Structure formats: C-alpha cells, structure tokens
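Hello,

Our lab assistant flagged a job as stuck in the queue for most of the afternoon. It eventually completed. Since we weren't sure the result was trustworthy after the delay, we are filing this so someone can double-check. Below is the sequence as submitted and the structure that was eventually returned. Let us know if re-running is recommended.
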Amino acid sequence: MDTIASLFSFITTPVSWVIVQFHSVYGALFGPDTGWAWGLSIVSLVILIRICLIPLFVKQIKSTRAMQTLQPEMKKIQERYKNDKQRQSEEMMKLYKETGTNPLSSCLPILAQSPFFFALYHVLNSIATGDTIGVINQSLLQSAQKAHIVGAPLAAKFTDSSSKVEALGASLTDVRVVTAIMIVLMSASQFFTQRQLMTKNIDTTVKTPFMQQQKMLMYVFPVMFAVFGINFPVGVLVYWLTTNVWTMGQQMYVIRNNPTPGSKAQASYLERLQKHVAQHSKVGRRRDRVIVKAIVAKGRDRNEYERKFINGLSKAGLVAQADGTVIKGDTSAAVETEDGTSTTAAPKRQQPKRQSKAQRQHGGAKPAGEGESKTSLSKSDEPEDAKPASAAQKGGAKPAGGTRSKAQSGQRKGPQRPKSPSKK
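-- returned structure --
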C-alpha cells in the first residue's frame, strides 16, 4: 500500500493544503489539537472532492443505463460467437462505438477519486511515522499526532503493534474497537448502496448477465473493504466511510427523482407524479416535464408502468403533451392497451323504456297527452262497473248469453278475437 501511495505523491501537496485550510477553520472552533478539528477537515475534503465529481457521476448514470439498454444486443453477440472469443470482442467494441457507450464510464467516480484517496493515505502515513509532508510542517505534524477520534489516533491502524499505538498516546484496545466499528459501517454502507441499486433501480424486464454481475459485486465489495480496511489508518477510514455515505445518499436521490425505466423505482415515481398532476392539473417541476416528454415520445414502446401512468391521466381527464405538459381533455379519453394501441371508451348504452303490451300491439302508441288515450295494464282505481263499455257494446251488439264485461280468470285482456259461429 505504501508503494502505491508513493506513486501519487505529486498530489499530496494539494491534498495536504486543503486539509490545513479546513483545519484552520475547525481548529478555531474546537481547538487545533482535537480530533474534531482534524476529523472534520478530512470529511470536508471528501465533500469537496465529491462535489467536483458530480459531472462524472451524472456521466456514470447515463453510461450505466446505456449499458443496460445494450444488454439484449450483447447477449445475442455472445450467443452468436460463443466459440470465437476474438470475433465476440470485435463485435462488442463495434457495438460500443456505434452506440457511443463506454463500459469504463461506470467506474469514473471511483477512478477519479483514487488519486486523492492514496494521497491522503500517504499524508496520514507520514504523520504516523513523524515525517513532514506537503504543507504540513512540524507544528501541524505534532498537532495531528495528538488528535484522537473517539480515543483512536488519526494515524493508527488496526494492525499496528501495541508499542506503536502507545507512542501515539492511545491503547491498542481502543484503536481496534474504533477501527473495527468503522470497517463494519464502511462495509455495511457499501452493501446497502449496491443492494438499493439492485432491488429498486434495475430494469427487471430484462434478464441479462449484467444483473448477475451486479449482484455478485453486491457481496464482493463489502468483503474487499473489510479485508483492506484493517490496513487503513483511522483518518483514511473516516475518508472512505464519508464517501460511502455520500454515495448512498446521492444514489437515493437519483433513484427517487430519476429512476431507471422499467424499474420498481420508476413505478413508485410515476405513481407519485400521477397523483400530483391529477391534483393540480399540471406538471410543476422542469425535471418532471422532461420525464413526461420522454414517455410521450416513446409511443408504443412504453413499458407497463408508463402505460399505467398515461391511462391514469386519461381517467383524470388529462392528456399528456409532446412538450411534457398536460391539458384537460375529454373524460372518455383513449385508454392505452398492453400492446401500445389506444382504444376510446364508448358511452354507456341506455336501456330503452319498457312499453306496455297494448303499446307493443299497436306498434308503439303515443304517450298520453298527445291526443290519444293511454293504455295501461295496471288495475284502475275506479270500480269495475264504472268502466266504459267495449267497442262491440258501443256498436249496439249485445254479447250472447249475457256475457260479463269483466274478463274471466285466465282470459287475455285487451281486444279479443271474435268467435266463429258454431255449426248446427
């Protein structure tokens, strides 16, 4: 580790200068020889470096998503040239060149901060051995050697001997307890960050070797941090724990606000966005408009969550536009099906009004009040004796045998068919 750190000795002077500047600020607040002053100086160094690396982090996200998009094509190339590794590599490089992707872009933040990490290791190792380095002079060196973080010297390691730890003014038990806790926290934060990426921000609709690789790294990285962590000084553990926590928070923000298409995080994001847009009838934030614009531009290529989002807006009487905004539309708006086509919901057919039997026999009589009498099958409130005579009685013909005007039980009501004369 010392040999690797010496390769980055050219950057130790800038790193030591930044630490000294932060130490002058925190030293005025907490005291120049305290662990708070030196510990917070290292934390501030991490934050400054990570802020400068934000553009590389954005590029890393774009590269990772581009690689996820290319996974089906890469799988086809692997299957086609599985017996010719050279041709397989050539086709892979050709695919990367055509799409403008770079597999190493996903490692840019780690590669970019590696020189600062090793430079800090070189600085702290020099403090432990009592050597001045960069802008850290003899007085600052003595101050840094007196600094303790929860009882552990800034330059102490888990593997240091008891005599070396006592020379720094601490006990071996305190150093090993503090370093062990920091190593566990460092490995746990790395595991949680990778697991969060795998469970929430991976397109679950595509099963590729890339997902298996990421799943393997979820367990490999924490083990690597635990193994190498016992050789890191306490100050370097503070640096690496801080950068892990920063990465975890930064990734949580990206997953919540700019999730990968097809992932569970996108389903949660679009559900929140749909409720907000339905409540306010507009897309407020510029970032949300960009995502809605991308969903509209996909057309029939939308995934399940995006189709559900568009259908939810349609049910709320809103229509997403090509510029990412929404407008009020017809309540019977088009609903997108699973294959991407749109169908318009037809209006509900009304049940026709039921007619009486007499109306059906007369071909649909006009309702009452239009010059014709209304026929009803319901019983009248008037006495049966007061009912008007039938058409045959009005003509003067009396029914034979004193036929009653009231229909017998079981006889059909309404105009009756005349009986044929009986044969004598």
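-- support follow-up --
The delay was a queue issue, not a problem with the job. The result is valid. The two ends are 133 Å apart (CA to CA). Strands lie at 148-149, 152-153, 318-320, 326-328, 334-336, 342-344.
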